Amino acid sequence: MSTARAILDSPGQPAHPNTELNTSVPATAGQLRYVLITPARNEEAFIEKTIQAMIQQIVLPLKWVIVDDGSTDRTAKIVGSYLAKYRWIEMVQMPEQRDRSFAGKVTAFNAGYERVKGLQFDIIGNLDADVSFENDYLEFLTTRFAEDPSLGVAGTVFRENSGYNSETDSFEGRRHVAGGCQLFRKQCWEEIGGYVPHRAGGIDWMAVTTARMKGWKTESFRERCFLHYRHLGTAERSLFSSAFSYGEKDYYLGGHPLWELFRVAYRATKRPYIVEGSALGLGYCWAFLRRTPRPVSRELMAFHRKEQMAKLRAILGSVMRLKRPDNFNLGRA
Hints:
alpha/beta
């Protein structure tokens, strides 16, 4: 983009120099090559944890582009301190933005994509700037793609310091891939048209669900996990505001009212009791009353609701049999 200032690799330098601090190697013959893009805004508290996790990976990316989306803190300075030593990391700096929105995140991601689209890669991924993982994490995921040509989107479960565990505390199930680390087969990425910008969010959900609707396999693996340092959805927002926003998002992404009623009741049983569930329900009702425009097609909404009802039947079936629902395997094909 013309407004972006790219900090480029120095000419004549190897893509992955061997240093005492980094003995990882790039993908070898037979392995799928991957690139990563990280939109980052005011992430000084966590981004170094993400960088440390990346430079210790057994299999390195062909390129990792970190897009500083107008940060007003030390984010760019922290990233910049790694560029000379790790030539496969690149930083793109965007102008300062007045507000934070998910549409802006897509703009930042696309600025990063401009830096990698000419490379020969097999997998492209979004990596958030507030996560970390073990050194074989990306080797594990790229191997899953190599083993299964039908796999279009892959990631893993994640945990938070608050105790939240997406494997057991979410009803999204194994077929949803969390946006914190979301990898796409290049062909799948091109078929779905990449991320669709929307100010209120849902960009990662729309991408994964569209891929599944188009016949691609999408899977979140639980053999590995990443640690998410910020409570989900609370970047520059309170917990109540975040839950309210999620309720709005549930509506405009076409969520079924019966599923939302179940979701509200379930969240009300979690800490902080009542508050989060109430905020979620209020957000959904507010979006309904305002008739918030939906960015999803009728086809995608119908597909989404069909999946939700299948999961709800599975949950009720388990309850009727006095068994605990298997959150992770709900609606598994």
